[in-house]
Amino acid sequence: MAMPPIDLRLRNLENAELLIASFENEIDAAFWLRERPPMMEVLGVIAQSDDPSLHLALRRAVRPLDEDEAAIVKRLDEESERAFAAARAEEERRAQEEAAAYREAMRHADPNRPMQLAWSLEGGFERVDPVDEREISDEVRAAILAWVRERDEWVAERGLVVGEAVVTVWPGVLPKGASRVQAGGHFTPVAAPSKD
After folding, report:
1. pLDDT (tens digit, 9 = 90+) per residue, 41-96?
2. What's the chain's Rg over C-alpha atoms?
3. Kind and range of the H or E run holding 135
4. How far apart are CA 47 and CA 29, in angstroms?
5. Which of 63, 76, 119, 155 could, after both became Cys, cross-link 36 (CB 3.0–4.6 A)?
């Protein structure tokens, strides 16, 4: 039975370059690992085999890092961690700036723009967009409840009611010929509560 090919993930400690070394079989890979060239760190084994003993044998075959190599590995890992932390901090800063810009834009947006709302049996009404600070008027609440009751009738024969719904509404002045609740809302039915 032919042995599967083996790939090794490597890092050149002189320039931090990441490499792949390919071997025809585990014997060749194990021999190379025992004679591992200086300044070449083994990061992992990629084998077309799930046999844990193969991976263990190859890990054990690796010539240990000497003192100089270990110091370089420690420095490179610390640099990599600092770079990752800096990138994460920059990403968070950018996300906060974008969120602040979006909140500001929403404050100046058309107050009668469509508004997306969620409704549930348990929790009542809630804005889908937490940045949207517009009031949910009594007129909007009544229109959504009427929309829900209509769908309650659709599922009543199966012993169900609307448990949750997400709809888009016109919160203020209705455009000519428009309904308060726009088409395209969706709902999730649940078992009707007991009448006891």
Report:
1. 999 888 777 778 888 888 899 999 999 999 999 999 999 999 999 999 999 999 99
2. 31
3. none
4. 10
5. 63
CB 73 within 8 A of CB 33: no
Helices of type H across 41-165: 52-61, 67-107, 138-155
Element of type H or E holding 184: none
Q: How is residue 55 written in tokens?
A: 């991976």
The whole-angstrom separation of Cα 144 and Cα 167 is: 8
Q: Which DSSP state fits 62? A: S
Task: Tell the residue number behind the tokens 């609440």, with chain if given.
Answer: 141
- Distance from C-alpha of 94 to C-alpha of 166, rounded to nearest angstrom: 30
Q: In what order do the strands lie in the sheet with 18-23?
A: 18-23, 6-12, 40-47
Which helix (DSSP H) or strand (DSSP E) does residue 33 occupy? helix 26-34
Side chain identity, residue 169: V
Task: Record the tokens describing residue 130, joined without a space.
Answer: 């937490």
Give, in degrees to the nearest 5, the angle at Cα 75 between 69 and 23.
Answer: 50
pTM for the full predicted model:
0.57
Comparing CA positions, the residue from 175, 176, 125 lying closest to residue 147 is 125
The upper half-sphere exposure of residue 110, i.e. CA atoms within 13 Å in the direction of its Cβ, equals 8
Side chain identity at residue 85, one-letter code: A
How many degrees, rounded to 5, is the angle at CA 111 between CA 110 and CA 116? 100
